[in-house]
């Protein structure tokens, strides 16, 4: 009993030490880098927003939202997905906000840009809270300036809303798993339900939710379960009404699609690393439309003095790939080897140490979230993987890179204290060059 009490005391001390803000460090709104990140996110997402992509899907969504208000209609579905079924109407309801102000669809682009600006700022706040100021600044700076992310930050398109909802979901999951607080489960369930209406790939977010339930089941109150069921029923009520009157045609079609023979290919992995690269078009995947805008002979990278630095984009993209792989490896290493109790050995000791370490439990959530890319390697043969299917993984790659570089900084402080300043400023210069090139 005494040994168990001692273990619980150590767990509480470790939890407090891992989650508290370092003394003397300003809060996020008093930090200068927050405003630099905000300036980059706002400028890159709002500048010439009238040039954002506007194709059939974008027109349909905004037209439906406008007609709903102009003619007193209540949409019970959106358009059809590429796989055939009708899409639930939540995104149309979101577009009713700008369409209530103006019929100009640029207002819809502005709303989407503002939502993704908020996603960048929340990424900084989230990563800084749980992994430190340096990790937060690096993650948000890279996320704010990544060109392939910016392309999916301005369109009137449902997948573009996922990053904002995902980062809010992470706050909820970490509230229960890392902070050990209650009332995280109900918001998490409703957030995933909303994201599923934006794009069906959000179903993969049930995996980190399940892990959170295992690690923080004591923080769930039984009354949250019926409330979650009622909330989902209310959220999907218009779509359920449609399906009931349509003899559940779309649901049967989804079931038939899921039952088709599957194939294994690397399309998802090929697209995953595109988010962190400076290339607009993925050179590894030419057979299908990527919904991205390729460069041509009129590109400013060829016709302006920018051509002198364009040669560095390929090495930078290789470097970002290395950093992304290094971030994944770092998270795995921190989960497996950090924070052990010396007096406890073997698998039971490792498990107890894991449960006593909020930081490691949070890293497990990040790893499971990003690990869903491996599940996507196998999919029905009739379904093609596009890059926008992976927006539910944002801003994960940039968080992993931020954790990696912050860990390198900590190792330098521990192993080479005399060279700590050299490593720090070298890190600042390297990240600055990547951000500038992006």
Describe, in short, the structure shown.
By secondary structure, this protein is mostly helical. It contains 21 helices and 2 strands.
Keywords:
438 residues; 21 helices; 2 strands; 63% helix; disordered N terminus
What does this structure look like?
The chain contains 21 helices and two strands. It is mainly alpha-helical. A two-stranded antiparallel sheet has the order 1-2. Helix 17 packs across helix 20. The longest helix is centred in the N-terminal third of the chain and has 26 residues. The N terminus is likely disordered.
What is the topology?
Layout: H1 2-19, H2 32-46, H3 56-70, H4 90-99, H5 106-131, H6 133-145, H7 147-151, H8 162-177, H9 185-198, H10 206-215, H11 224-235, H12 237-245, H13 249-258, E1 262-264, H14 267-272, H15 300-303, H16 307-310, H17 313-337, H18 346-355, H19 358-375, E2 378-380, H20 396-415, H21 420-437
Antiparallel strand pairs: 1-2
Helix pairs in contact: 2-5, 2-6, 3-4, 5-6, 5-8, 6-20, 6-21, 8-9, 8-10, 9-11, 10-19, 17-19, 17-20, 20-21
Cα-to-Cα separation, first versus last residue = 57 Å
- Low-pLDDT stretches are 1-11, 13-20, 282-292
Compressed to H and E, one letter per element, the order equals: HHHHHHHHHHHHHEHHHHHHEHH
Describe the main β-sheet briefly. 2 strands, antiparallel
Overall mean pLDDT = 86
Q: What order do the strands of the largest sheet run in, or round the barrel if closed?
A: 1-2
Please give the share of residues in helix. Answer: 55-70%
| Helix count from the secondary structure assignment | 21
Strand content: under 5%
> Which descriptor suits the 3D outline?
globular
What's the total number of strands? 2
Give the C-alpha Rg.
23 Å
By helix and strand content, what is the structural category? mainly alpha
């Amino acid at each position: 009993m005494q040994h168990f009490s001692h273990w619980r005391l150590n767990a509480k001390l470790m939890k407090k030490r891992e989650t508290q803000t370092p003394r003397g460090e300003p809060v996020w709104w008093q930090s200068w880098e927050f405003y630099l990140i905000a300036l980059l996110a706002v400028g890159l997402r709002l500048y010439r927003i009238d040039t954002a992509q506007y194709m059939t899907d974008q027109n349909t969504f905004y037209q439906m939202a406008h007609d709903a208000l102009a003619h007193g209609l209540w949409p019970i579905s959106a358009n059809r997905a590429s796989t055939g079924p009708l899409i639930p109407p939540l995104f149309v309801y979101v577009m009713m906000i700008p369409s209530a102000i103006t019929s100009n669809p640029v207002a819809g682009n502005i709303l989407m840009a503002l939502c993704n600006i908020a996603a960048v700022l929340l990424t900084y706040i989230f990563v800084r809270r749980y992994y430190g100021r340096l990790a937060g600044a690096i993650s948000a700076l890279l996320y704010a300036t990544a060109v392939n992310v910016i392309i999916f930050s301005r369109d009137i398109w449902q997948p573009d809303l996922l990053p904002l909802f995902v980062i809010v979901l992470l706050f909820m999951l970490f509230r229960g798993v890392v902070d050990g607080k209650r009332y995280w489960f109900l918001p998490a369930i409703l957030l995933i339900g909303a994201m599923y209406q934006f794009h069906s790939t959000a179903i993969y977010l049930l995996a980190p939710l399940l892990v959170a339930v295992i690690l923080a089941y004591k923080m769930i109150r039984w009354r949250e379960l019926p409330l979650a069921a009622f909330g989902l029923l209310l959220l999907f009520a218009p779509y359920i009404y449609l399906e009931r009157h349509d003899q559940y045609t779309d649901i049967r079609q989804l079931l038939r699609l899921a039952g088709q023979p599957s194939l294994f290919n690397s399309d998802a992995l090929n697209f995953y690393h595109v988010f962190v690269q400076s290339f607009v078009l993925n050179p590894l995947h030419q057979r299908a439309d990527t919904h991205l805008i390729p460069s041509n002979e009129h590109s400013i990278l060829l016709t302006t003095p920018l051509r002198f630095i364009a040669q560095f984009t390929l090495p930078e993209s290789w470097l970002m790939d290395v950093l992304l792989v290094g971030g994944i490896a770092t998270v795995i290493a921190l989960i497996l080897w950090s924070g052990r109790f010396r007096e406890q050995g073997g698998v039971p000791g490792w498990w107890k140490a894991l449960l006593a370490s909020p930081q490691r439990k949070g890293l497990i959530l990040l790893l499971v979230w990003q690990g869903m890319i491996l599940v996507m390697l196998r999919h029905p043969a009739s379904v093609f993987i596009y890059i926008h299917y992976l927006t539910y993984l944002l801003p994960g790659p940039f968080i992993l890179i931020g954790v990696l570089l912050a860990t390198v900084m900590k190792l330098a402080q521990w192993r080479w204290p005399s060279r700590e300043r050299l490593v720090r400023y070298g890190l600042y210069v390297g990240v600055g060059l990547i951000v500038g090139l992006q």
